[in-house]
Amino acid sequence: MNLLIGAKESVAFVGKSGCGKSTALQLVLRFYTASSGQVLLDENDIEELNLRWLRRQIGYVGQLPTLFSGTVRSNILLGNEGATEDEVIAAAKAANAHDFIMGFTNGYDTDIGTGGNLMSGGQKQRIAIARAIVKNPKILILDEATAALDNESERIVQAALDELQRKQPRTTLVVAHRLVTVKNCTKICVLDKGGVKELGSHEELIAQKGLYYDLWKKQGASDE
Asked: Is 100 exposed, middle or buried (0-12, 13-18, 19+ CB in 10 A)?
């Protein structure tokens, strides 16, 4: 696999299940060590960078978020303990979480229960996205971050993330099964059998009528 990602680009990884989408992102996070080749960040081998420093530069949201006992506010602040109240609220609004939070009796001071068991899956996911946003990371990694949301919530959150990228561009790496959620990315990287098979914008890949075009015909067009 060989791929160059420019600063502040939004790059989506798509392809069939098991093609290596999440693994590629987990190499960037150093959850795995590459057995050969290199992962470079600003021309530095990622393995030689201080791990704590590296992860401070990255905001990560997975498909199944981890929340902790405490309040809504304390969970968002885990992304940035020095964030102001305005920054916490702005992050929650960007994640489409503010309205449902304010619907709770105690708002941001609401206790979410052990592991967030007093919240729905979609609510937990939006809190996790707010936690990543309030960190204001240089790199934002979204590994099927909207997969737990219903279609309408996913559409709203995705629109908020697109708007955030427009206002505050940052390097954003996205894994998604639903192609309609990534059609606005700068680049879409189509993986198959361990390598990059196609690379380009949504319009460029549709025009190629290759793997992405076939995936879009089967799924994306009907979703849209």
From this structure: middle
3-state class (DSSP) for residue 32: coil
Alpha helices in 7-50 (DSSP H): 21-28
Residue 109 vs residues 88, 102, 117, 136: alpha-carbon distances, Å: 12, 10, 16, 22
Local mean pLDDT, 10-residue blocks, the chain (224 residues)? 92 88 91 92 95 93 88 96 95 91 94 84 88 93 83 79 84 89 92 89 94 86 58
Owner of token pair 């729905």: 120
Q: Are 29 and 55 in contact (CB under 8 A)?
A: yes
Query: pTM higher than 0.85 for the full model?
Result: yes
d(CA 123, CA 13): 25
Calculate ∠ Cα 154-143-41, nearest 5°: 135
CA distance 200 to 116: 39
The C-alpha atoms of residue 71 and residue 219 are separated, in whole angstroms, by 38
Reduce the DSSP state of residue 27 to 3 states and report it. helix
Quick one: pLDDT at residue 87?
Answer: 96
CA distance 184 to 174: 11
Half-sphere CA count of 81, side-chain side, radius 13 A: 1
Cβ proximity of 81 and 135 under 8 Å: no
pLDDT computed for residue 223 by the predictor: 55
> What's the CA gap between 80 and 73, in Å, rounded?
11
